[in-house]
Amino acid sequence: MSLNLFVKCKECGAIIERKKFIENKYVCNICGDYEVLDFKKRLSMILDKNTFEETNAHANFYNPIDFPGYLEKHESIVNKTDLDEAIITGRGFICGYKVMIGIMDIRYMMGSMGVIVGEKVTRLFEDAQDNKIPVVMFIASGGARMQEGIFSLMQMAKTAAAVSKFSKEGGLYISVLTNPTTGGVSASFAFLGDIILAEPRALIGFAGKRVIEQTIKEKLPTNFQTSEFLFEHGFIDLIVERNNLKETIGEILKIHN
Ligand SMILES: [Zn+2]
């Protein structure tokens, strides 16, 4: 059997026909596990065909604190993937409605937020504000970019300010939390959506579970920091299966059009 015709589920080990797996939007039909998507798969699933126009592509690599090994790590990812940063931004259409869209991709340093991610997110909201169109953001992030120290943390304030300005002008921001949404990104623009959607069973939180348990010296529930737990506690508006995601976003855009 050709390996290309089948995929193995990372969670339950089931061997699934690749064609079926793709038709099912990269969700295992046996255990329901969601494969983490790269930006191209996400784009093709969400945007209307051939409507994507990238903005602010190819920013120059920047090492604000001369962190050792950072450039080498960047270059190795550039050589291995189609990415040169952890977010792709642009404009396009969803169910016929024009949007600005941002898609984070964890293949680039765990989707962490450094100066360039902060700048691209900010420009995305500024463009949306100038053109009076909604923003749809797909979050996938390990948090702040360690290699950029304090400069990385400053992006939390910067992106939050951009969202706030956009919001004051009456802009609509739909944030979609996917696996994983953690750290400085969850503590800034990820949770500032007017409407916050999440994919099922995604890991969503700020600090890691173990760190919190050690700090508060208490055991946390097993489903702590999942989409479902956060939904129950009012942090998320709706958990949406990947199969219904585009239509759900289209419906929200229609209501607010
Ligand atoms: Zn499975």
From TrEMBL:
Domain CoA carboxyltransferase N-terminal: 5-257
Chain's role: Component of the acetyl coenzyme A carboxylase (ACC) complex. Biotin carboxylase (BC) catalyzes the carboxylation of biotin on its carrier protein (BCCP) and then the CO(2) group is transferred by the transcarboxylase to acetyl-CoA to form malonyl-CoA.
Family label: Belongs to the AccD/PCCB family.
Subunit structure: Acetyl-CoA carboxylase is a heterohexamer composed of biotin carboxyl carrier protein (AccB), biotin carboxylase (AccC) and two subunits each of ACCase subunit alpha (AccA) and ACCase subunit beta (AccD).
The UniProt record lists the keyword Zinc-finger: yes
First-level EC class: transferase
E.C. code: 2.1.3.15
Coiled coil region boundaries: none
Protein name: Acetyl-coenzyme A carboxylase carboxyl transferase subunit beta
A cellular component annotation (GO) from this entry: acetyl-CoA carboxylase complex
Main localisation: cytoplasm
Record: residues binding Zn(2+): C9, C12, C28, C31
Pathway: Lipid metabolism; malonyl-CoA biosynthesis; malonyl-CoA from acetyl-CoA: step 1/1
SUPFAM superfamilies per record: ClpP/crotonase
GO biological process: fatty acid biosynthetic process; malonyl-CoA biosynthetic process
GO MF annotation, one: acetyl-CoA carboxylase activity
PANTHER family: ACETYL-COENZYME A CARBOXYLASE CARBOXYL TRANSFERASE SUBUNIT BETA, CHLOROPLASTIC (PTHR42995)
Catalytic activity annotation: N(6)-carboxybiotinyl-L-lysyl-[protein] + acetyl-CoA = N(6)-biotinyl-L-lysyl-[protein] + malonyl-CoA
Cofactor note: Binds 1 zinc ion per subunit.
Zinc fingers classed as C4-type: ranges: 9-31
Cell compartment(s), UniProt: Cytoplasm
InterPro entries in UniProt: AcCoA_carboxyl_beta, Acetyl_CoA_COase_Trfase_b_su, ClpP/crotonase-like_dom_sf, COA_CT_N
Species per Swiss-Prot/TrEMBL record: Lachnotalea glycerini
Record keyword Transferase present: yes
